[in-house]
Amino acid sequence: MLKKLCSYPGCHKVVEAGVKYCDRHKNTDREKYREYKRKRMENEEEARRQQFYNSKAWEGFRANQEAAQLGVDIFEYYTTGIVITAEQYHHIEEVTEAWHRRLDRDNVIGLSEANHRRIHKEYDRGYMAKKKMQRTLYDMLQRFRREFGDSGGI
């Protein structure tokens, strides 16, 4: 049977291959996440945002966007020509900056998880990089609607 070291930083215990942590550290990530989530929810704005993402309104809106955008990662399609599934529905203008646009179909675009991370990395580069990426995403969304039909949000 193959063995490896526990993935917890600094731990030298040996575990079976396919097991991430030793018995001492197996619940550490879960506990850290619970604490992170608890602290995050103490912030009123963040709590409101999380409540929105867990709401029926968002679930229904997201389903409509998925249908209208054919479940396609629009960014990938226009940058590489490859059709892949959209796993995330990204607010081009973020909810924290434009709460009033949280259910605006012109502000939400389907992306794969990898492209979602890529776009947020670009946003994090600074104001100008973020604005340029937002313009690119708006243009791609409009182009997609012109080329594949505008369902009007279904």
Could you characterize the architecture of this molecule?
The strands form 2 sheets. A two-stranded antiparallel ribbon has the order 1-2. It has 154 residues and is mostly helical. It has helices at residues 28-41, 44-53, 56-68, 74-80, 113-123, 127-148, and strands at 3-5, 14-16, 88-91, 108-111. The model has no long low-confidence stretch (mean pLDDT 89). It comes from Mediterraneibacter gnavus (Ruminococcus gnavus).
List keywords for this structure.
globular; mainly alpha; two-stranded antiparallel sheet; about 150 residues; HNH endonuclease; 2 domains
Describe the largest sheet.
Answer: 2 strands, antiparallel
How large is the radius of gyration?
20 Å
Q: Helical content, roughly? A: 40-55%
Mean pLDDT: 89
Total strand count, please?
4
Strands in their spatial order, largest beta sheet: 1-2
So how many helices?
6
Protein name: HNH endonuclease
